[in-house]
Write a structure and sequence with these properties.
Layout: H1 2-16, H2 19-41, E1 52-57, E2 63-68, H3 70-84, H4 91-101, H5 112-121, H6 127-135, H7 145-160, H8 165-176, H9 188-212, H10 218-222, H11 225-230, H12 236-269, H13 291-320, H14 323-336, H15 351-354, H16 357-360, E3 367-369, E4 372-374, H17 376-403
Antiparallel strand pairs: 1-2, 3-4
Helix pairs in contact: 1-12, 2-9, 2-12, 9-12, 9-13, 9-14, 12-13, 13-14, 13-17
């Protein structure tokens, strides 16, 4: 054990003394912080908020007009969301949404832009519940609580229509666990984290590859391979020392990247709303979890994806004995996923699909895993975990070939 610990620390120090991993972790972490800053403050990055003039006329003919940037609109909607946070989304709340959508009888509100003007210029309290209603394609001036929940149920059942009876029964049981009526809560910070996870999934292969591209090829570069493999602990113990040191560095890099983004987002937009229903931001989802739990699940899956990327990098490193190939392979595989246009369920488990928060939580396809139905998130953990273990095991075959002089 003492000898193995010495080998492990030796391999770990070899990885940590390289400058490229440190540079990549710092640069990508700074990029994610900057991106989070842009989303909060820069109108160009606020896709749901377009700069423009908002104008509203009251019943007496007086007009109020103001130019608002996307960032100002986001700030006003957040203020309103916090003001209504904690209220039950029952008929009482929907009555207030209806009244606000018509200007509370004091303003001439006839179209969508005038409603937006009322919420931004006069009273932003019920803007987010109003936005939830319009996002479902309903008219906020007439929608009742019963109509809102009935329309949502209709949409869910339409998504279940092409499923088998057992699959539909699975989602009905999940939906039965979703507490209704919803309790509205502000969840801006966690919603931003869920969106940023897709960007993180594109950066993690780059960071991990830069950290581990030389983990098995370094000896060939220094021409010390034969000496290492002929030593007493140069085979299985050395292999595990390399693998564990690689996993340690990849895990630390992945956590650093995720932590930098999550910490800044929560500090900038607030961490309240962890216990809010996932459905507040994903109305077509039947998963009985909170938005905070959803963020933790995707972050956990993202961490596992980092280990999978480390397995890919080390596999190419040991079989090619080429640092450039090991650096390029995970990045190329990540880029190639965007070109796949196959209409099969397996595509849903590619990173660009599995970490897409706008689609992953409403995905109703299940996997029959030895007689037990798993949803896409559950099977994602099984799939990514299994692939990571398999790739690391294949690295041992490559190390054995090195020992036999076949590489």
């Amino acid at each position: 054990m003492k000898n193995f610990r010495t080998l492990y620390w030796y391999e770990l120090k070899k990885l940590l003394k390289r400058k490229l991993p440190w540079i990549m972790v710092l640069v990508t972490s700074a990029f994610m912080v900057y991106d989070a800053y842009q989303v909060k403050y820069d109108a160009y990055h606020l896709k749901d908020y377009v700069d423009g003039w908002f104008s509203l006329t009251d019943q007496a003919g007086n007009t109020v007009s103001e130019h608002l940037s996307g960032a100002e609109q986001r700030r006003l909607s957040d203020e309103g969301a916090r003001r209504v946070s904690g209220q039950i989304m029952d008929e009482s709340l929907f009555q207030k949404v209806r009244q606000a959508s018509t200007g509370n009888g004091q303003y001439l509100v006839q179209d969508t832009w005038e409603r937006e003007s009322y919420f931004y210029l006069i009273d932003n309290t019920y803007y987010v519940p109003y936005y939830m209603v319009t996002k479902m394609g309903l008219d906020p001036t007439i929608t009742t609580a019963d109509g809102f929940y009935a329309h949502r149920q209709y949409s869910l059942e339409a998504n279940w229509a092409e499923l088998t009876d057992r699959e539909a029964a699975y989602w009905k049981s999940m939906e039965a666990q979703v507490e209704k009526p919803f309790v509205y809560c502000y969840t801006g910070g966690y919603q931003d984290i869920l969106v940023d996870i897709l960007a993180l999934s594109m950066l993690i292969p780059i960071v991990v590859a830069s950290c581990l591209c030389g983990v098995f090829s370094e000896e060939k570069r220094t021409r010390a391979g034969a000496l290492v493999l002929s030593s007493r602990y140069g085979r299985f113990p050395q292999y595990w020392a390399k693998v564990l040191s690689g996993i340690t560095v990849a895990s630390a890099a992945t956590l650093s990247l995720m932590g930098a983004n999550v910490a800044f987002v929560l500090l900038a937009r607030g961490w309240d709303g962890f216990d809010a229903a996932l459905q507040l931001g994903n109305l077509n989802s039947s998963l009985p979890i909170t938005v905070g739990q959803a963020a933790l699940i995707l972050l956990g899956l993202l961490f596992l994806y980092g280990l999978l990327c480390s397995g890919v990098t080390m596999l190419f490193s040991v079989f090619t004995q080429n640092t450039v190939v090991a650096l390029s392979a995970p990045i190329l595989l990540m880029l190639c996923q965007g070109w796949l246009r196959l209409d099969i369920q397996a595509v849903e488990y590619l990173p660009n699909q599995l970490f897409n928060s706008t689609a992953v939580f409403r995905n109703v396809n299940l996997v029959n895993f030895f007689g037990v139905y798993l949803n896409n998130l559950q099977f994602g953990f099984v799939l990514y975990g299994g692939l990571a273990v398999m790739l690391i095991a294949l690295c041992w075959l490559g190390w054995r070939r090195s020992a036999a002089g076949k590489i």
